Amino acid sequence: MKPALFAAALALALSSVTSPAPAEAKGCLKGALLGGVAGHYAGHHAILGAIGGCVVGRHLANEKEKAAAAAQSEHPAPAPHGY
What we know:
mainly alpha
């Protein structure tokens, strides 16, 4: 199991280095870490847990970003006074 996990981590690291555009990994890394640990303890399914955690973490990060943008548009910054 450890060689498979190491190979997956190495492939992920190399894919981020060789990708032409910067990766949008907000939430994915934290979710993958937590999902991998949870999957490991829930029946030795660390890889599946990491994949699921990445998907859920990314979704939650998108929702948080949308909520922040909505809050920003509801309360725009005051215009400076032109003295």
